[in-house]
Structure to design on (451 residues):
């Protein structure tokens, strides 16, 4: 990312026609931008209605100007916002004039937030929370992102790191006495503090990966033979016609997807081609993609047609395709299940969407789907861990802490202290107090230009 001593600008609202568009300007000469349009910036913290003029002195637009002065602004720098009418022509003209101002340049993706970070307005975990908030599709995602921005992980992790550093310092004071027996009360005290710390980290890790599922969503593939009712179930769960339903076998050729909100978790359902051998090259490609979806999904709904003789024997070949968790559903139960004497028939969910109990049958599938995708051991409070890198960092710190107290503290305190420093460094990288720049650039690249 370029040096951040110049003045940057960007459209902060989505492009396209709208009632209002907001153009953000941040940097040492941002307030002077108003003069480019023949206007004057308001005093800091105030709005002003202003008429902007184009290069020929003709009216361009009547706008609202908002000025903020650093370090009290959102970026920590002087900021000017231009609230103009959301005309494509108006926005383009303003951006074009700003680009011609000396020392001004268009902002890169996430650069406004990067300047917030540079001026200690936000930390690394807050940046990640902000990215998640912008991407939130469900209310649970929104709440989790806000909690991350507010320090749900930062607070505990900072305390853990401070405790690790303090433990390491205590051990380092023992190095000069390594040839002497360590008093039992000192060793016991250090062990007790370490055990408490390990317990706190383990509790955070044992959340069923719920926070990661909330943030990233869950992919559920519908797998089955042709005409097993996959598309019918897909449409029922989505509440609208997403996939084509036909009595003709092999109607679904490609993977059709739709996302539903299941108790705050974004569940992407994949309707796939029926699994069978075929000489049709197009259908064969669909079957290949169905098999791939079965392998890559987080969970699967295995559908078998209960009206077909021998349906029970078709379950095992289908479940063998799935790497994740799976739920077997016997479809067309409203038409009568054949082979009723088959062992195990009662352990599968029966589904009938054409009979009088269709609503209850569909609700039963939703309840089963909840059990499939929502961890049974989810934490009662919000999960602190929302990304895989958080989990890896805490796991590494936990392992290093265990290794530290596997040493004889009286004879090798320096080894234990070194392990504790590794544990503290793992948490430091996660929080963002060390080795942060490359990770920041990766996060900011996913931001919109005006953020």
């Amino acid at each position: 990312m370029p040096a951040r001593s110049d003045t940057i600008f960007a459209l902060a609202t989505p492009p396209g026609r709208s009632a209002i568009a907001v153009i953000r300007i941040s940097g040492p000469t941002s307030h002077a931008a108003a003069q480019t349009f023949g206007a004057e910036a308001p005093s800091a913290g105030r709005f002003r209605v202003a008429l902007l003029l184009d290069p020929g002195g003709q009216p361009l637009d009547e706008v609202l100007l908002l000025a903020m002065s650093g370090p009290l602004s959102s970026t920590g720098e002087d900021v000017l916002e231009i609230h103009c009418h959301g005309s494509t022509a108006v926005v383009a003209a303003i951006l074009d004039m700003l680009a011609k101002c000396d020392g001004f340049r268009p902002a890169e993706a996430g650069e406004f937030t990067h300047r917030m970070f540079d001026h200690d307005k936000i930390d690394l975990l807050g940046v990640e929370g902000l990215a998640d908030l912008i991407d939130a599709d469900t209310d649970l995602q929104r709440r989790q992102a806000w909690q991350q921005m507010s320090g749900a992980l930062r607070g505990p992790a900072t305390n853990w790191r401070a405790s690790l550093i303090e433990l390491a310092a205590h051990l380092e004071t023992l190095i000069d006495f390594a040839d002497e027996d360590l008093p039992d009360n000192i060793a016991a005290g250090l062990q007790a503090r370490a055990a408490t710390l390990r317990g706190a980290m383990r509790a955070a890790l044992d959340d069923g990966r719920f926070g990661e599922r909330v943030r990233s969503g869950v992919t559920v593939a519908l797998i089955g033979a042709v005409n097993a009712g996959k598309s019918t179930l897909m449409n029922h769960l989505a509440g609208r016609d997403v996939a084509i339903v036909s009595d003709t076998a092999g109607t679904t050729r490609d993977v059709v997807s739709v996302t539903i909100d299941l108790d705050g978790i974004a569940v992407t359902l994949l309707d796939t081609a029926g699994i069978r051998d075929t000489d049709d090259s197009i259908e064969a490609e669909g079957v290949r993609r169905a098999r791939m979806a079965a392998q890559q999904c987080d969970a699967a709904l295995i559908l078998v047609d209960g009206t077909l003789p021998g349906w029970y024997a078709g379950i095992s070949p289908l479940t063998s395709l799935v790497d994740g968790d799976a739920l077997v559903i016997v479809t067309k139960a409203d038409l009568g299940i054949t082979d009723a004497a088959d062992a195990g028939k009662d352990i599968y969910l029966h589904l009938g969407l054409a009979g009088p109990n269709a609503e209850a049958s569909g609700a039963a599938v939703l309840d089963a789907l909840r059990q499939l995708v929502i961890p049974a051991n989810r934490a009662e409070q919000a999960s602190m861990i929302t990304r895989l890198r958080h989990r890896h960092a805490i796991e590494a710190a936990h392992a290093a802490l265990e290794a530290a107290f596997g040493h004889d503290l009286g004879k090798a305190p320096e080894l234990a202290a070194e392990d504790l420093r590794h544990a503290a460094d793992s948490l430091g990288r996660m929080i963002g107090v060390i080795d942060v720049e490359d990770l920041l650039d990766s996060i900011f690249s996913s931001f919109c230009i005006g953020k």
